[in-house]
Amino acid sequence: AQKITQTQPGMFVQEKEAVTLDCTYDTSDPSYGLFWYKQPSSGEMIFLIYQGSYDQQNATEGRYSLNFQKARKSANLVISASQLGDSAMYFCAMREGEVSGTYKYIFGTGTRLKVLA
Amino acid sequence: DTAVSQTPKYLVTQMGNDKSIKCEQNLGHDTMYWYKQDSKKFLKIMFSYNNKELIINETVPNRFSPKSPDKAHLNLHINSLELGDSAVYFCASSQRPYRTEAFFGQGTRLTVV
């Protein structure tokens, strides 16, 4: 079974609009971390935002916010005021294994976002 | 200063050859990883080392052998390369306690012809 599910293979958004990229996860670990990374066409992996499983408030980093709904096991990324430079592949990831000590980051299949001028 | 650096960035080689990819991190992190990104962009963990000790080996063919001479370095050696090994290989590192993200190298694009 997929541990991280990103159901949107591709998304379009108009410049300056907000967009939500969906992510659901599955884990039985009591403590875990959720992350979003951006991969532009140049190929590097850029960290965007982090949410800990015990964090009460949703994480925000500039134009990025993470809509964390623990009961639903979802961790959606919201990008406000989209820019052309936001066009990229976006990966949701979960770090689990804190109890077992294995500590691995598991990635979803990604969502390709295209920002339209 | 580059936090996680991999060499080479591109590697083109023939089937059957043996090749190595080197990775170094200057962040003082305890844990290092190798990930494989296939042509569909799927990122899959291969190995994880913590303080030079192998922690995760995700059913990777034994043609792939990681080596960690110290906690700042994690190299990947691949024997008898096959066409299906063509991919982008990412090295990453992170620090315990794990409230931080994994830092990735720029990737090594391996093409087996």
Describe the structure.
- The complex is a heterodimer of chains A (117) and B (113).
- Chain A contains no helices and twelve strands.
- By secondary structure, chain A is an all-beta fold.
- With 113 residues, chain B is mostly beta strands.
- Helix content of chain B is 0%, strand content 56%.
- Chain B contains no helices and eleven strands.
- Chain B has strands at 4-7, 10-13, 19-25, 31-37, 43-50, 53-57, 64-70, 73-78, 87-94, 103-104, 108-112.
- In chain B, strands 2, 4, 5, 6, 9, 10 and 11 form a seven-stranded mixed sheet that branches. A four-stranded antiparallel sheet of chain B has the order 1-3-8-7, with no helix packed on it.
- In chain B, strand 7 and strand 8 (73-78) form a beta hairpin.
What's the gist of this structure?
The complex is a heterodimer of chains A (117) and B (113). Chain A is mainly β and 117 residues long.
